[in-house]
Amino acid sequence: MKKVAQFEKVSLKQFLGDWIDTFGNRSDHIITEIYKNIKLPIRKTKYSAGHDFFTPCDIRIKPGDSMMIPTGIRCQMNINYVMLLFPRSSLGIKKHMAIANTIPVIDADYINADNEGHIFICIRNYGDKELEVKTGEAFVQAVFVEYGSADNNKIDAKRNGGIGSTGK
Ligand SMILES: O=c1ccn([C@H]2C[C@H](O)[C@@H](COP(=O)(O)OP(=O)(O)OP(=O)(O)O)O2)c(=O)[nH]1
Ligand SMILES: [Mg+2]
């Protein structure tokens, strides 16, 4: 399989800031421990297309609610590839977990964003029981797909953010 990308952790400083912004104030010590235990996404078999992302913390979501998860992960990709995120089927089917924005698109130039390209994943509980996912459990999977353009590559604008950074 051709190598087209490389996962990395964001810096501890970035992770601390994003974690506090997302969940409110918690002790730096606890967040540092969470950061240390973050594992890079991996494929589980030789021909799996999906690289499983692992949850950085215990997750509990009430029916109908969603939760934004700072993964601690960023990704260097060949510029002609895009990363698409999908739920792991087992959690989608057995636990009624969905991704809030359906199929997140992680652009190759997101790595240049002012948040170091930190990948956030928002999951939703569409079942009628509390959704529980334990720390370190594989919950979503990343697939790298080659893409083309319809504009002769005339766009020069550079990405410097994510999730709404390019405006309306
Ligand atoms: O679930 C997501 C979706 C997106 N992103 C990041 C990576 C992506 O490259 C960037 C922009 O995503 P998208 O283009 O889907 O959102 P947008 O609302 O159009 O934001 P922007 O204006 O920044 O392009 O935000 C995430 O971390 N998680
Ligand atoms: Mg966009």
Automatic annotation (TrEMBL):
Its EC number is 3.6.1.23. GO terms for molecular function: dUTP diphosphatase activity; magnesium ion binding. It holds the Pfam family dUTPase. Gene3D superfamilies: 2.70.40.10. It is an enzyme of class 3 (hydrolase). The keyword Lyase does not apply. SUPFAM superfamilies: dUTPase-like (SSF51283). Residues 37-166 form the dUTPase-like domain. GO terms for biological process: dUMP biosynthetic process; dUTP catabolic process. Signal peptide: none annotated. Keywords: Hydrolase, Nucleotide metabolism. It catalyses: dUTP + H2O = dUMP + diphosphate + H(+). Belongs to the dUTPase family. This is dUTP diphosphatase. It comes from Acetatifactor muris. The lineage of its organism: Bacteria, Bacillati, Bacillota, Clostridia, Lachnospirales.
